[in-house]
Structure formats: structure tokens, C-alpha cells
Amino acid sequence: VLGLLVWALIADTTYYLHAAYSWVMFVSIFLWIVTLLFFVTYLLQLQLKFYMIPWPLVLMIFNAAATVLYITAFVTCAAAVQPTSWRQWDYNRRAAASFFAGLTMIAYGVSTFFSFRAWKGLGSNAATSQVSDHA
């Protein structure tokens, strides 16, 4: 949802006049689509059919790459916002897009942390801890 907000806010401005916003659009749309594909994969439990793929590792690498890309998009978007814009609504939308790009960057960073824990097997839920304690 946060990534969708970023590219929707940027797309509603005259981003094509500024090269920096084209990078932000690319990062936000590309990562939004890939995240949506991973979501559908897990929603339909397709990862169980492709058991030979190390899904926790794939998700950790994706989330780490998405975090790095969103860092660049956030910095680019925030640096390109100019308060002396000739269109006030462009300024407001670009500033809001910068804010949501920062939130998206943080969300992908947190996902990277939890993906790392899942990959290393450090995370457990109540069901697995209950079973292992009584077995």
C-alpha cells in the first residue's frame, strides 16, 4: 500500500519534466509489482509447489535489494522537492511521496530483518514452540 501511494502521488505530478522523479517512478512501480507477485505466490501457496527454491533466502535478498533501492528513491525524491515550485499541488504531492517513500523504505528494512530471521531459523511461533516443548 505504501509503495502504491508513492507512485500514485508522483504519477499525479509533472514528473516527466524532472529526471529524478523518473527514477522514483521506476523503483516504486517495479518493486510494487514484484511485491504483488510475491504476495499472490504466498496467497495461493504456490511456494509449496516450488519446494526446491529456498523461499526465505529469496525473500531476504529481495527485501534487502528493495530497501537499498528505496533508500536511493527516497533520497532522490526528497532532494528533488523544491518549495518554490510553480505549481503548489505538485510540491504537496512530491513532499507526500517523499514521506511515503521513507515509510516504504523502513517497511522493507523491517521485512529484511524478519526475512533474515526466517532464513536463519531464528523465528518461531507459538505452535512450534508448544510442540517442541512437549515432544
TrEMBL record:
Keyword Plastid annotated: no
Limits of the MARVEL domain: 1-120
Record key words, sorted: Cell membrane, Membrane, Transmembrane, Transmembrane helix
Name recorded for this polypeptide: Plasmolipin
Keyword Transmembrane helix attributed: yes
GO molecular function, one term: structural constituent of myelin sheath
Subunit structure: Forms oligomers.
Protein family: Belongs to the MAL family.
Lineage of producing organism: Eukaryota, Metazoa, Chordata, Craniata, Vertebrata
Residues spanning the membrane: 20-44, 56-81, 96-116
Listed GO biological process terms: myelination
Entry's Gene Ontology cellular component terms: apical plasma membrane; myelin sheath
Membrane topology term: Multi-pass membrane protein
Location(s) in or outside the cell: Apical cell membrane; Myelin membrane
